[in-house]
Structure formats: C-alpha cells, structure tokens
Amino acid sequence: MSEPGAWRRLYPLSPIVRGGRGTIGIVILLVPTLLRGGISAGDLVPLAVIALITLLGFVSWFVTRWTIDGDDLRIETGVLRRRSLRFPLSQVQAIDILRPGLGRLLGAAELRLRMGGSSGGAARLSYVAAGEVEALRTQLLALARGAPPDQATPAVVTADEHVLTTVPTARLIASILISDVGFYAEAVLAALIVTALLAPAVASAVISGGGLVWLLGVITVTWRRFNLEYRLTVADAPDGLRLSGGLVSLTSETIRPGRVQAVRMVEPLLWRPFGWCRLQVDLAGGRQPADGDGTAQRRQLRVVLPVGRRPLVEQVLDRIVPDRPQRQSPPPRRVRFKSPLRYRMLAWGGTDTCVVTTSGRVRRVTCWVPLEKVQSWRRVQGPVQRRLNLATVHVDTAGRAVRAALRDRDAGEADQALARYVELARAARRTRG
Amino acid sequence: MDLHWRTPSARLLVLRRVEVAGLTAVAAIAAVVFGWIYFSALLGVGVGAVAVIAGLAAERVVGRRFASWGYAEREDDLLVRRGVLFSRLSVVPYGRMQFVDVTAGPLERSFRLATVKMHTAAAASDARIPGLERDEAARLRDRLAELGEAQAAGI
User: Fold this and answer.
1) Listing from the earlier edge strand, what are the strands of the sheet with B70-73?
2) A54 within 8 A of A60, measured Cβ to Cβ
3) Which is deepest, A261, B48, B60, B75, by most CB within 10 Å?
4) Domain containing A320: what range?
5) Rounded Cα gap, residues A83 and A172, in angstroms
6) Per the CB < 8 Å rule, is A403 touching B124?
C-alpha cells in the first residue's frame, strides 16, 4: 500500500476484463488464424480492428488514475474530455467487491463505493489487483467511518466477522425450483419437451421462430438468481452485515444498519410448508443511475437471505432493525368482506422506532420500516372502506420497491396510529435521522 | 390542536366548471351533427341531450371535489386532503422534501392560478395542491423551501 496522496493506476489487465464477452469473442475470432499458423490477406481487417480495440483499451487504462486525498477518493479519466471525479468518503454507504468470472481468471476485482445523498451514484474502481482489494476496502471503510487518514492502515482495522449462515446449495436449488421464477422456466421447458416428443416438427418450428428467445430468457433469469445467491454467506461484522457469495462472479457487500430504508420478508405460498422465507433490504440512494452493465447496481432491493427459516431471519433482523415490534395485531373481522383473500395475512405492529406491516394475497409480504426513514404518510379511504368504517394508512419509503401500509384498519384506529406515528417519526428524525 | 385549513382559490372551481362545460358542449354538438347527418335529427338531438345531462351531473361532482381540497401548514409537516370517492390525507414532513414544483398550464395561467407539488424521495408520496392564486403559490413555495432547508434530514 502506497502512502496517501500518491496517484495510482488501475490493474493493467483491466481493459481485458472490462471487455467481458467481447474479449472472449475476440479470442474465438483469433483461433482460426493461430491454427493456420500464418497470416493471410483475409485476416488483416479483423487483426487491425483487434489492434485498434487493444490500443484504445490501453489508452483508457493509461489515462485513468486514482488517489485517496484526505477524505476524498479522486478518480481522473478520459482523453478528449478529461473528467475529474471526487467522492467524499464520509458519504460512502457501503463498499462492495465484485469479481466477474473473467476477472477471477486474470486476478482482477472491482471495488464499488455506494454513495449516499440524493444523487445516489456509485464510484467504481474497475479493476484493482485481487490481492490488494481486501486491504484497500478495509482502508476506505476506516476512512469512511472517520478515522484520521494516517491511522487508516489495514493493520488498525481488523474485521472480525461472525458468520451467521451460508445458504445450503440443495435448499437454494429447491427453493428456486418452487419459486415464481422457477415455475416460468419449468413451464416453458416442460411445454417444449412435450411438444418435441409429440410433434418434433412443430417443436423445431417453434424454436426457430422466436421460441428460442423465450427459452433463453427464462433460463437467464433463473440462472442469474442462482448465480447471485449461490453459497451466499451472511456474516455479522463490526460495521454492519457482510454478504458474500456467487458462483461465477463473486460479490461481497456490506450493509450498514443505519442506511436501511426498509426490510421486506417474502413468503411465497409453496415455501410456507417448509417454513422458508426470503429477506430483502432497500438501501438509500433514491434514483439508481442506469449504467450499461450494472446488473447488481440496478436492483434496488438487495437479497440478504435467499432462503431461510424464521429463527435465522430473526437473527439477521436483530442486526438491521434491532428495536422491532414482536407482535402484530390483526384487522377487525368485518375486513373479511372487503378483502377476503388478504384478510388472513393483514396485520401491523409498531414500537417507538419501527413499524411492521404484513399483507399479500397469495404470498405473504412483511415490511419493517424504521420510523426515521419514512418519507411521508397517507391515509386513504375508499367507498367500500367508508361503508365499513375502515381506512388504510400508507407508509411511504424512498424509492418504489417497498410498499408498507396499515391496510384496512378501523377508521378510529387508523387516525390514532397516524397521529401517533407522525409524531414518533418526527422525534426519530430529530435524534437519529 | 386546531388546524387552519386553507383551500384553493375559488377561481379553481370556475376553471373546472369551464372545463366540464367546454367538454360537454363539444360532445353535444358533435352528437347532434353526426346524428343529423348519418341517422335522424331526432336521434342526434336525443344523444345531445344525454350529453348535456351528463355534463350537468359532472358539474355537481366538480363542486364536491373542489370542496374536498384543503391544505394546512403545521409546525413540522404539510397536510393535504382531497378526494370525494377516495378521500386521501397526505402528511409530508418538511424535512423530507427534496424539491417543490410550481406549474401552470395554459388554462390555469389564463385564470392566474398555479399548482404546487412537493417531491420526496418516495415515489408514492402525493402532495399536490392545484388552483392556488399566484401570490399564494409563490408564498407557499418559498415557505416550504425555507422550512425544508431548516429541517432537512439525510435520507
């Protein structure tokens, strides 16, 4: 590790890793030339293109440099349009390590700093050497927590982690097979196999006529979920919850409890006999920038526990929302007439710092919202609700992923809850927000 | 705690009535003309009369909807109520406000009215107040911005 303030370059093989599938394509393109052992006139054009791309990649690597300057991470890049980026480390919410498949082969890893604030962007160092990445991450995290720059060496901060769980692969596969995503894939595959057995001609016609795209689509979605959640390990680190895992590309991310906007637990119908549920968190950073390859970037909800039982969920929740309601109260009985499917699921509870709501028709969705993160409150009463003297209080959280609502409560109870929790949320914002 | 509920300008009601009346007139005239040309005069006039009756009914709804609008500035948050069939009450803390929009469409402008909208980080937040007098809209915008800055809380 060099001293603070010195400019450094990224990992030399970065352009190759960044090329991703393109690189693999180029290698395949080169194979016939290499096999023939000589260069013929027909190879000149592809070779020139490859040389140009390589040169451009090298130039982009050459002009990009970064440094830690006091409390800031600075990145300078660009040839014609020079850009100088400055990321204040005090606003860093989490630092993730991403290792795509090609990066693992070549010893490169990407460091992604998730920034807070309304912009909600991310600083990316793609790529640094895999050997240094852990140390660098620890150093940056120490700086983000306000350690003086000269003390923030990796030796000072030792991350002592306490592993809570690793998701067993067999259970993950089983859970995906009976999830919504899995069902689509199975249905498409089964339909295709049946058609192929009964009428091979029809099957081949379907495949050649657009059916293939469908098939690839469902397989990709299923595969992506498996790839992301494979052997996901949840660990309890001093700075938050540490998640790491993945099959081909490895990710490692830290979730700081104070940055969680909302927590969501989903229990699909078919998972309930096994007592399984899925835990996701919504992190700060309102609008996510839509950058090309950021699959991990775009999903707003992050899976903390792909599949697990209640005791484990409680353990993880203890870390993210420690002061949460233990009991939820069901709605009045007359709600049966208004929401017959939802009636059995509906419930809510609250403490002085947190609200929990449960809803759902087929799958049960439970949301925990820390009061200091609530953006606004809405009391809505529709015509049927008015007749039954019911009302719904919506708890609006940042983004649009989590929908928490005290659904179908007695109108008087809804008014009381609204008055009480608006007041509590104000107090929570003052002290913690 | 007693609240001082303010309402949009009375000109908003006039604006809404003009909108409904205009729409009704267009629908009725179109019905009469098309009925006359392609079928019979009687049918055309009949359909036109139905359109006029529907317009009159809409005028009543417009009146009730106008009366349902209201907003109140409390110490820490803004309350906005609206809706007849679905009655809604929004509570938006000033500290959560990201920015305030003041817009005025061509019709609104001709009535010297404007719409104020508060935005938070949540997509579901709904705090829109239409039909404010221009001065009141400017006053509200400045006051909200000022309070928002004073109480701003991190996300």
Assistant:
1) A404-410, A390-396, A376-381, B87-93, B77-82, B70-73
2) no
3) A261
4) 253-431
5) 43
6) yes
Q: Is the dihedral of CA A387, A393, A398, A400 positive or negative?
A: negative
Q: How many domains does chain A divide into?
A: 3
What is the arithmetic mean of pLDDT over A385-407? 90
Q: How far is CA B121 from the centre of its chain?
A: 23
Looking at the fold, whether A117 and A205 belong to one and the same domain comes out as: no
- In this complex, is the C-beta atom of A325 within 8 Å of any C-beta atom belonging to chain B? no
CB B63 within 8 A of CB B79: no
pTM (2 d.p.): 0.79
Q: A92: domain CATH number?
A: 2.30.29
d(CA A341, CA A336): 8
Q: Is residue A100 part of a domain?
A: yes
CATH class of B70-151: mainly beta
Helix residue ranges per DSSP H, B6-133: 10-38, 41-68, 106-110
- Which residues of B are less than 8 Å from A376 in CB distance? 90-93, 96, 120, 122, 124-127
Q: A216 with A257, same domain?
A: no
Per-residue pLDDT tens digits for A132-158? 888 888 888 888 777 665 554 444 444
The reply to whether A234 falls in a domain is: no
Tokens found for residue A326: 């233990």
8 A C-beta contact, residue A59 and residue A79: yes
Best A114, A288, A378 residue to mutate vs chain B (most B CBs within 10 Å): A378
* Cis peptide leading into residue A127 (ω within 30°): yes
Among residues A101, A136, A158, the one where a domain terminates is A158
Sequence spans of domains, chain B: 10-66, 70-151
| Residue A298: band (very low, low, confident or very high) from pLDDT cuts 50, 70, 90 | very low
CB of B154 within 8 Å of any CB in chain A?
yes
Residues near A242 by Cβ (< 8 Å), separated by ≥ 6? A159, A161, A233, A234, A235, A236, A252, A253, A254, A255
ipTM entry: 0.87
A212-229 helix and A169-177 helix, angle to the nearest 10 degrees: 140
Domain boundary among A180, A195, A229: A229
Question: Both tokens of residue B14?
Answer: 């006039």
Residue among B75, B86, B91 with most chain A CBs within 10 A, to mutate:
B91
Judge whether A21 lies within some domain: yes
Task: Write the DSSP assignment of A378-422 as a string of letters.
Answer: EEEE-HHHHHTTEEEEEEE-SBSS--EEEEEEEHHHHHHHHHHHH
CA distance A249 to A110: 11
B154 and A397 within 8 Å at the Cβ level: the answer is no
